Amino acid sequence: MQLGEAVHDTSYTRNTPVDLGAARLDFLDGRHWVHEVKSSSRPTPADQAQGRHYCHRLHEIGVDAQGAILHYPKTRRTHRQPYTAEAAEQAVTDIADVLTVAAARTSPERLTRSACQGCSFTDYCWTE
Fold this sequence. Notes:
- By secondary structure, this protein is α+β, with helices and mostly antiparallel strands.
- It has 4 helices and 6 strands; from the N terminus they run H-E-E-E-E-H-E-E-H-H.
- It has a 4-stranded mixed β-sheet with strand order 3-4-5-6. Strands 1-2 form a two-stranded antiparallel ribbon.
- Helix 2 (45-60) crosses helix 3 (85-103).
- This is DUF83 domain-containing protein.
């Protein structure tokens, strides 16, 4: 997570983060596109889910988010993800899935170590 914070702090210094309470997005532009700066070099399903979640949260408080733009400074690429009706439906499903896992009495089985490559939370799962 420290790497991600360092990438954000040095890549987009003119923008102000938006605090949504339990979530903090990197910045929101004047057209209501959520911008997230990522430390990886390419989009992942988790990055896309994060963008959908932020758009969902903004819609809940009355901000008409148009979608998410994921920035990858390492490769100087961006990935634009419009917030469609299907994306909104997926966000609701993702949240329900997370709440189900969080409410479970036991943790789910760990993924294989190679599946955790690049995850900021690897230490939580793999520290004995």
